[in-house]
Amino acid sequence: MINLSPSQASATIWHDAAALLGALLLVAATPAALASEALSNRTKVSQQGSEAAGSTRSTARRGNDAGEFLASDLHHYPVKPGDNLYRIAEQLLNRPTDWQAVAKLNAIKNPDFLQPGSTVKIPLRLMRGVAQSAQVLYLRGEVKVIAGPDKGKALSAGQTLREGNVIAASTNGWLGLGLQDGSQIYVSPNSQFTLQRLRDVPQLGARQTEVKLKQGRADFAVEKQPAGSRFEVTTPLAVTGVRGTRFGVALNAQGTRTLTDLLSGSVVFKAGAVKTGAHTELAAGHGIVLDQGRAPTLKALPDAPQLTQALSRIESLPFLLPLQLSDSKGADTAGTFLAQLETISQPAQIIWLANEAKPTLSADIADGNYLLRVRAISSDGLAGKELLTPVHIKTTPAAPLIQIPAQGAHVPSGKVTLLCAGDDDAKGYLFQISEQIDFAGNTQEKITEGSLCRWDSQLDQPQPYFWRVATLEDLATAQRGPFSAPTAFTVVKAPSAPEASESYTDQLRVQWAGEPGSSYQLQIAHERDFAAPILDLQLSEPHTALDIPLGCHDYFIRIKSTNQYGMSSAFSKVRRLNTPAVLCSSNGLGLRDSQGQIIRLAD
User: Fold this and answer.
1) Which of 578, 589, 597, 529 is nearest to 553 (CA)?
2) What letter does residue 223 receive in the DSSP assignment?
3) pLDDT of 431 strictly over 50
4) What is the pTM of this model?
5) H or E stretch at 320
6) 134: phi > 0 → left, psi -120 to 50 → alpha, else beta; which?
7) pLDDT digits (tens, 9 = 90+) for 191-233
8) I need a surface site. Which of 45, 188, 241, 494 has the fewest CB within 10 A?
9) Beta bridge partners of 543
10) 230-234 vs 206-221, strand pairing mode
11) Angle CA(353)–CA(354)–CA(355) in degrees, nearest 5?
12) Beta carbons within 8 Å of 107's beta carbon, 6+ residues apart
C-alpha cells in the first residue's frame, strides 16, 4: 500500500475526477462532431453587403484554428514527456477546468495521454499570466470606479487601477489611462468600461489586454504588441482585436449599435451577433458599423474637416473653432465634429473636448502650446479622419483698456496721442497703427517702456486708421499678451487759422478762405493782447460786414476756425486793421463835419 500525504491525496482525487469528467464529455461528443466544431469556418462579409455599403471588401480568415479563436490568438505548446492536459492546465491556464476547452479545440480524446514532440494549441485568453495595472494619466470632471477591487476610491492622476475595475465617466468627465506597455486609452464623457484583463504571459513574452466597453466611446493608441499577444476591445455586439494601431470603439446608449473607426494600422473585427462568426480585417481610413441582429457594414471614414483660418495663435477665449466640412463629393456627415485639445507633452493629456456642431474652446484653458484634433461625424456615428493642427493660446497678460482715440473718433492730422489704461506692473506696451483692420500691411509699431500706456504718434495723412495695444511681459524679447480689439478712428485735416482780407467803405468787410461745415470766431480789439476785445463774434460763414466807429485809435483783428468735428485751430496772427485815416483833435477824438460824420483825411 502506498501512503499519500494529504496534499498528494487531494491532487490525486482532483486528477481522477477531472479525468472521469473529461471522459464523459468526450463520449458525449463524437469525433465527427468535434472535428466539425474544430473546423468551423471564418468567412468574408458578403460581397453583396459590402457593395451595398459602398465600401472596400474585408478579408476573413479560414483555417484549422477552430472555434472562436484566430490563429494569432493561439499558443502552440510543445508537449514534453510526462505532460497531460491536467498538468498543463495547472501550470499555464486560468482555471483547472480550462483543460476541457483545450481538449475540444485540439480534438484530444484522452486528456491523460499526449504525444511527446507534438504541439497543443492553447488559446491565449485561457493562459494565466501575471496581472498588470493601468495608471490614470489625467482626468477631468467626475469619473468613478463603480465596481471591482477599487470600488469607491476617488480617482486622481497617477492612481493605479487593476484588472476587474469598472469605471464610469459622467457627462462632463473623461480620463486617460496608460498601460504598462506604453499603450494609452482615452475615455470620452458619458462612458462606462471594464478593465477586463491586463496580463503578461512571461513564458510566451506576450501580453493579454481586454477592455470591455459597456457604453459610450473610447479611443486607443496601442503600442506594437509582441508576437502571440492579444489586445481586444469588446462590446456586447462585437470584438475588435489589434496588434498596434490608433482606433476608436463606440457603443450607443441602447446597446444596439457598435462602431469601430481606424486611423492607422489594422484591426480585426468580429461580429459576435452574426451566426457565421465572420472576422473582418479593417484597413486604415475605414470604419465598420454593426447594428444588433444585422451584418456589419464597412465604410470609408469621412474626410478630415478644414479650417477657414489659421489657428497659430488664439488670444481670446471662449473661441469658436473656424471649421467647415470637407467639400468631397458624396461626403456622408452629420454636421457635427468630435474635437479635442491636447498637450504636446508625452504622454499627451486631453484638456478639452466637444462633440457638437460648433465646437467652442472654453474660457478656462491655460496659456500654452497644444495640438488640436478634429474629426467629422458621419450620419451613422463614425468618427472620420483627423484634422491635426498646432495651436498656441495666449490670453495673458490682459490687453490695456482703450481710452483715446475711441471707436469712431475723428482726430486732427499731425500729432495723434494714443492713450490707454494699462497695468501698474507692466514692463511696457506694444502699439500698432494700421490702415487695415487685420494689421496685415502699412502698420506702424511702437514699443514704450514703463507702466504709462501712451504713444504720441505722427499721422499727417487724413484717412481712416485702426489701432491696438498689447501689454509686454518682457522688453528684451517683446513677449506680449493679446492685443486689444482693433479700434477704428479717422484722421482729418487739422483746421488752419484763417488769413483774412478786409476793406472799408461804409462798413468794415472781412473775408477769408473757409472749409465746408466749419464755424469761426472773430475778435476785434484796440490792443494786441486782446485782453478786452470790443467784438467777439461766432460766425458760420467765412465773411462778415461790421460797423465799427472810425477814430484816432487802432483796431486789431484775429480769427480762428472750428471744423465739423469740433476741432479748432489756433487764432490767426494778430493783424492791424487798415481803416481810413481821420482828422484827429487834440484830445485824440475824430473831428466831425456839420453833418456829424467823422472827417476822413482822404476825403
Assistant:
1) 589
2) P
3) yes
4) 0.70
5) strand 319-320
6) beta
7) 999 999 999 988 788 899 999 999 999 999 999 998 878 899 9
8) 494
9) 511
10) parallel
11) 140
12) 31, 34, 35, 38
